[in-house]
Amino acid sequence: MKSAREDVRDKVKRAKIMRHDRQDLYSAHLTEQWSWEKIALYQEALNGAFKKYAQRFPDDVCLEKIAEEIATGQAQLWLVLKNKIQFSAFAITKVESAHTGKKCVVLSDLAGEGGLKLVKLIDEVEKWARKINAEEIHMFGRTGWAKKLAHHGYSRNLIQYRKVLGS
Question: From what superkingdom does this record's organism come (predicted)?
C-alpha cells in the first residue's frame, strides 16, 4: 500500500504530464519565400496584430512604412505559429550594416500573443542570421525581456530615454 507521500508524488507527476500535454508549441517562420496566398491564410489575424501594435505605439509604428519595407525586401516578416497552424505573433527583421561594416540583423518589431514564451524562438532568427553571414543581432525590447534574453547570450547595449516636450 502506498504512503500518503507517495500518493501525492504520483498525483503531482500526473498533473505535470497533463500540463505538458496541453502545452502549446510555438515555431517561427520566415515568410520571404512564401507565396502571397500562403501569407493570406493568416491575413486577418496578422492585420489585427498589426493594428493593435500600431495603436499601442502610435508615435513609433507606421504600418504603411512596415508594409512597404516588407514588400520591397528591405525588411523580413516572420510569423510565429502556435501548434504549427495558428497565428500567434509576428516579428520584423532588417539587415543593416553598422558603421564598422559589420552585417547586423535588427529585430525591430514583435507583437501578438505568446509573450516571453517566444524568446526561445530567437534561435531561429540566429540560424537565419548566420546563414546570411550576419555578425550580430540587435533588437529593441522592453526591460522585462532582459532576463530571458540573457539566457540566450544577449546583453543590454543601450537604453533609450524619452521625454515628451509640451508646447
Answer: Bacteria
